Automatic annotation (TrEMBL):
InterPro entries from the UniProt entry: DUF167, YggU-like_sf
Naturally occurring in which organism (per UniProt): Desulfofarcimen acetoxidans (strain ATCC 49208 / DSM 771 / KCTC 5769 / VKM B-1644 / 5575) (Desulfotomaculum acetoxidans)
Protein name, as recorded: UPF0235 protein Dtox_1088
A Pfam family annotated for this UniProt entry: DUF167
Cellular component annotations (GO), alphabetically ordered: cytoplasm
Family, per entry: Belongs to the UPF0235 family.
Length: 98
């Protein structure tokens, strides 16, 4: 189950990034985080920028609404997205189960 929390004006959730993948995609759940595969390499913040762009596009928010809270140098990250609900995140990332 994804560890996602509602905060003032948005949500915070865990992400596990796999850089240098063959394509950008949501790869399901990894423990209590959403696993995201990115083609970007993990150098000079490229994977972090690609992650924020990927999430903004898939969640239907602007890039400015996506912020890395922790994990700038690791694969495990905590992401804050403002202006969206937890249910919307689950639906838009394809993780919502009826």
């Amino acid at each position: 189950m994804l560890d996602i929390r509602s905060v003032q004006n948005g949500v915070v959730f865990k992400v596990r990034v796999q850089p240098r993948a063959s394509k950008d995609q949501v790869a399901g759940l990894w423990e209590d985080a959403v696993k995201i595969r990115l083609t970007a390499p993990p150098v000079e913040g490229e994977a972090n920028r690609a992650l924020c762009d990927f999430l903004a596009k898939h969640l239907g928010v602007t890039r400015a609404q996506v912020d890395l809270v922790t994990g700038q140098t690791g694969r495990n990250k905590l992401v804050r997205v403002s202006g969206i609900t937890a249910e919307s995140v689950l639906q838009r990332l394809g993780l919502y189960k009826n």
